[in-house]
Amino acid sequence: MPGTLTTPKLTAADRCDRCGAGARVRAVLPTGGELLFCNHHANEHADRLREMNATIVSEDEVTV
Questions:
Q1: The whole model's pTM is what?
Q2: Strands 25-28 and 34-37
Q3: What angle do CA 52, 62, 27 make, to 5 degrees?
Q4: Are the beta carbons of 37 and 25 closer than 8 angstroms?
Q5: What is the spatial order of strands in the sheet that 55-58 belongs to?
Q6: Most exposed: 20, 28, 48, 60, by fewest CB within 10 Å?
Q7: Beta strands in 1-64 (DSSP E)
């Protein structure tokens, strides 16, 4: 039986790759990489991420 691939929930230790603020959004790239963003930088880069066919997952609640 094949396993299900899941991404772990973001925690308070996860930081934005652009500014170091708390990460609220995970962008999974088609190549398998991922980027973490605060809401501000996720909004700033959303158009380009969509062009790249990235899967964008916003986490409303971050586990502390």
A1: 0.82
A2: antiparallel
A3: 5
A4: yes
A5: 34-37, 25-28, 55-58
A6: 60
A7: 25-28, 34-37, 55-58
